[in-house]
Amino acid sequence: MDKLEDKINELARKLGKRPLQGPHSDYQELRRLYEAQANREVAQQQKDARKQRIEAIHGKSDLNPKWTFDNLIQDSQDVQEAVSIAQSFIVAHDDPSWRQSGAHMMIFYGDYGRGKSHIAGAIAHELIEQYEISVLYRQLSSLLEMRFFSYDFSAKDDVGQKFREINQELLNVDLLILDEVCVNETALKKNAQSWLGTLLRQRQSHNKNCILITNHSLSQLEQALGSYCFESIKEYDTYKVHFSGPSRRKSVADDVAVSPSAHPSGYTPNQVR
């Protein structure tokens, strides 16, 4: 069996340290070396654990991975102003008192294709990476559809249980992003208004933040959501961001027709985005 001094010197060589000279400092030097190694291992474990937590949050968020600030086209003043507000919102999370002071809501409104969902997603990605904020992205229309089918008690696809689980997630998640709010709707049905209003009030009472994305103007949104639901929004510290620049989506009408001969065989997707 190697002597203690030999073991210490071997460990020192692995760590790039000078071998010990004499037995007097064996214990103290060994302790120092082991503590340094243990600290590095703990730091690496913490780093790996944080990475796993962030990956888990991303996995549950249902965010488009392409919605980042790096991929955002900032070619108009409205988008540049929205990014500035978004960055301020992100940085504010550095202040614990701001995070505990109340619930905050951002309302992104404007026509289709202006970058509303993209910027909301970019905010969410940054908050996950920097602060491990839990995020959930959902389209309101899909939630209302699931809610409707959850009342079919004869159904055997467990949609009722699934909706109850999702509803609990909607209440608990740190940042809820609701997209396409009241899309193609001049007014939600009364029971839908009540459900959404109650959800927002419950989140507000627990200091949970929200981002609402809509194609309506603010006056149209108030009419579509109804008084009870819109009063719930007023309880938040609200940031309203109007998107009025050009659409970033391709115009189908402007696309050049492609001759069938260009695709000799196989299925060709429309590529409509």
TrEMBL record:
<dbReference type="GO" id="GO:0006260">
    <property type="term" value="P:DNA replication"/>
</dbReference>
<protein>
    <recommendedName>
        <fullName>IstB-like ATP-binding domain-containing protein</fullName>
    </recommendedName>
</protein>
<dbReference type="GO" id="GO:0005524">
    <property type="term" value="F:ATP binding"/>
</dbReference>
<feature type="region of interest" description="Disordered">
    <location>
        <begin position="253"/>
        <end position="273"/>
    </location>
</feature>
<dbReference type="InterPro" id="IPR002611">
    <property type="entry name" value="IstB_ATP-bd"/>
</dbReference>
<feature type="domain" description="IstB-like ATP-binding">
    <location>
        <begin position="103"/>
        <end position="226"/>
    </location>
</feature>
<dbReference type="Pfam" id="PF01695">
    <property type="entry name" value="IstB_IS21"/>
</dbReference>
<dbReference type="InterPro" id="IPR027417">
    <property type="entry name" value="P-loop_NTPase"/>
</dbReference>
